[in-house]
Amino acid sequence: MTAIAEREVALVDLVDKLLGGGVVIAGDITLAVADVDLVYVQLRALISSVATAQDKQLLPRMGDAL
Amino acid sequence: MRDKLLHAPLDLDPFARTVPRIDDALSRRVNADPESLERGLAQLVLTIVELLRQLMERQALRRIDAGSLTGEQEERLGRTFMELDQRMAELREEFGLTEEDLNLDLGPLGRLL
Amino acid sequence: MIELYAITDDPGPPLPDVAGLRLVPFDGLAAVCTPASEAEVSPETLWHHEEVVEALMADRDLLPVRYGTRLDDEAAVARAMEGRSGELAAALDRVRGAVELSVRVVAAGGTPSPPDPPETTSGAEYLRVRAQAEASHDDVARALHEPLAERARESTEGRPHPPELFRAAYLVERAAIDSFVAEVGRLQSVSAGLAILCTGPWPPYSFAER
Predict the structure, then answer these.
(1) What mean pLDDT value characterizes chain C?
(2) Which CATH class is domain C98-207?
């Protein structure tokens, strides 16, 4: 029982690292649909700029509707 | 598998809870047929919505911290976010997506959320 | 098709005894690869991949490559490496002699944090619960992250997945692993309200790219 739990816990970390980390080399990455990957890249640029805008307090104030 | 736990509490359960979804996430990723493409698009859209929702929620919390909102505004904000949260859960269910699915892997740029 | 595992120095120690393991050299570095596996992605294939990278890591420094990276053939690998040797050599130097240790923290006693507010909750209460979660994270981050980061060459915070309060990866000198783990133990002993998990050593996945 404990051995299984340990392995499951380690798997959470393993998946996080293997799929989210490591050097990325251009190629056929089997874990993504290639076309959608391109859209992700653009999306992240958008998110970064939103986060920066937020830090610089450039985002509009909350409207009265809320 | 070789022991990877260098320091662990007795109760490992809270650290393993995401596991049931892992098999799901893995099998979905290798699937390149048109149906999953559609779901992939829903995934993208919902992730943007989720990101904006979180940004706005955090913004609201900051303003509350700063004391710049009335009690009534707080109440309305809270209810709006609560409803948004619920609606997101419904949308996720409609497309068969989990919370983890909205934490997209952006390749060279890391995870979205 | 070829599957990539890691970038290493070239020349280096002989490769471990893994079927089909080969080096594709480029400019003082090498990409370590095998013929691509036909098997579907599963926890088993992930662990197998990890075993290969760790076997390499046992006697050399390396940059782990993202799982699932495949190219047509060795010529394609060489092409992909073109112009990147400077960048990859610098990245390898950043992680030289160090491994990755992972830390995750939840509230002790198995209390999930925060619970989903029931539908009848007021808006203000909903925000209070959210604010609580944010505050908890920041408290934990301050109390644990600083002393641990001090014992690491580099560190990076991850996004905690509920019920986690905090999640981070630390780049730790191989020789300092024991003292890092000892510090985790010490922090646990003075943090009764938290349950701290530390796993590793892992190849430096979270520090391989900027």
Answers:
(1) 89
(2) alpha beta
